[in-house]
């Protein structure tokens, strides 16, 4: 797919900060991360194309993504929770707008404006609910033993890798002043989907991959790209901590938790202190290892 050169340097820079790197990561590190994530997306889309051909489908949909993640139930659960949150959030906003629209207005234009907004919210709510239902249906088609959907909906088995990450970020954020904490909090909200068309153009640029990908599949790809950055940053900080550990016994201690996804990320107690927000930025060498 040819077109103007696009990139996500500024977005990836903020996402890396949101996962614990310094506010202004090294330019070379961000550029390397951008290349790694783009290659990863290309590989996922290429594999999804193969699955779509096997299913005799002319497009890549969420079924292809679910099939590729079938051995990683934690990532499937995270996607489910993401879609569930979107559906719930839009429903709450729609319900609040409905209550507001029931009030009487002296100025009719204000009520008209509110009703138009409510209509847009209703459409978005319906789309988010359809996306969630479609994802659940894709899970059910793949769920041979009938436990995958329940696993995604329930919180029985904890996602320990995610818990370790959140604990690490919470620990290092305690030492931030209000201005730096605000910047950190904003960085935590950055996603590729904030620029959907640009994301698709960037992911497919310079390749011959299919562009016939549904919006729901793109949402899943956005999540996978975001999570890939998180895993790389997590691993880089852990390796940095390991390199500075001189106690040979501590180096050989078994980890407390593990991420069943690929690449694997292991965290012990030392992982909670691998902070970058107030320390040195991640280097390209640390990222590529």
Helicity level: 55-70%
Radius of gyration: 21 Å
- Strand line-up of the largest beta sheet: 1-2
Quote the distance from N terminus to C terminus. 30 Å
Beta-sheet strand percentage? under 5%
Helix and strand succession?
HHHHHHHHHHHEEH
Number of contiguous helices:
12
Sheet with the most strands, sense and barrel status:
2 strands, antiparallel
- Tally the beta strands: 2
Find the structural class using helix and strand composition: mainly alpha
Summarize the topology.
Layout: H1 9-18, H2 27-54, H3 62-68, H4 73-101, H5 108-142, H6 148-153, H7 160-173, H8 178-187, H9 196-204, H10 215-243, H11 248-251, E1 257-258, E2 266-267, H12 284-288
Antiparallel strand pairs: 1-2
Helix pairs in contact: 1-2, 1-8, 2-3, 2-10, 3-5, 3-10, 4-5
């Amino acid at each position: 797919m040819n077109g103007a050169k696009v990139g996500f340097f500024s977005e990836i820079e903020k996402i890396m900060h949101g996962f614990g790197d310094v506010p202004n990561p090294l330019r070379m590190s961000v550029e390397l991360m951008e290349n790694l994530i783009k290659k990863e997306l290309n590989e996922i889309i290429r594999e999804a194309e193969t699955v779509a051909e096997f299913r005799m489908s002319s497009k890549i949909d969420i079924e292809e993504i679910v099939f590729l993640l079938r051995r990683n139930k934690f990532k499937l659960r995270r996607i489910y929770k993401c879609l569930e949150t979107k559906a719930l959030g839009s429903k709450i906003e729609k319900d609040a707008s409905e209550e507001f629209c029931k009030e009487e207005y002296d100025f009719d234009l204000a009520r008209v404006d509110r009703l138009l907004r409510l209509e847009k919210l209703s459409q978005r709510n319906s789309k988010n609910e359809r996306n969630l239902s479609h994802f659940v249906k894709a899970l059910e088609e793949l769920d041979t033993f009938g436990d995958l959907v329940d696993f995604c909906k329930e919180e029985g088995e904890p996602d320990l890798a995610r818990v370790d990450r959140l604990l690490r970020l919470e620990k290092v954020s305690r030492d931030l002043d209000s201005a730096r904490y605000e910047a950190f909090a904003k960085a935590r909200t950055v996603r590729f989907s904030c620029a959907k068309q640009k994301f698709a153009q960037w992911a497919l640029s310079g390749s011959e991959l299919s562009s016939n990908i549904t919006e729901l599949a793109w949402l899943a790809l956005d999540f996978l790209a975001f999570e890939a950055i998180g895993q790389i940053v997590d691993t880089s900080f852990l390796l940095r901590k390991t390199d500075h550990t001189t106690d040979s016994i501590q180096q050989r201690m078994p980890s407390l938790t593990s991420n069943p996804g690929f690449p694997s990320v292991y965290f012990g107690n030392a992982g909670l202190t691998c902070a970058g927000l107030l320390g040195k930025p991640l280097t390209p060498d640390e990222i590529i290892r």
